[in-house]
Design brief:
Blueprint lengths: L3 H4 L2 H11 L7 E4 L8 E6 L9 E6 L2 H10 L3 E8 L9 E7 L3
Organism: Streptomyces chengmaiensis
Protein name: Methyltransferase
Length: 102
């Protein structure tokens, strides 16, 4: 899913996600991989460079960072990786999957 886990602070969202999942529930999400050298919170203009000012924050993490954040919040069996695009000139997809504790 593109959305909540890219545009909400992991420190705020992951505890809520863990709390709301059934035992052994599986959170899974995807988003574009972080631009190399640009990790963590990033600001962007929601409407591009024209029109009304709209600021959006997103959290661009490496697979290793996502795995660490999920583990820190009690998730297990974490698989976080970038699936390369069929054409190496295109952007791949970061995919993350984990399991809630018992």
């Amino acid at each position: 899913m593109w959305g909540a886990l890219w545009f909400t602070s992991p420190e705020r969202l992951l505890p809520l996600l863990r709390q709301s999942l059934a035992p052994q529930g599986v959170p899974a999400f995807s988003h574009a991989p972080a631009v190399p050298g640009s990790y963590g919170i990033q600001g962007m203009y929601g409407a591009g460079f024209s029109g009304r000012q709209l600021w959006i924050h997103r959290w661009a993490c490496t697979p290793e960072d996502w795995a660490g954040l999920l583990e820190q919040h009690g998730f297990m069996n974490i698989d976080a990786r970038v699936l390369e695009a069929p054409d190496p000139e295109n952007v791949g997809t970061l995919i993350v999957r984990a399991r809630a504790p018992h």
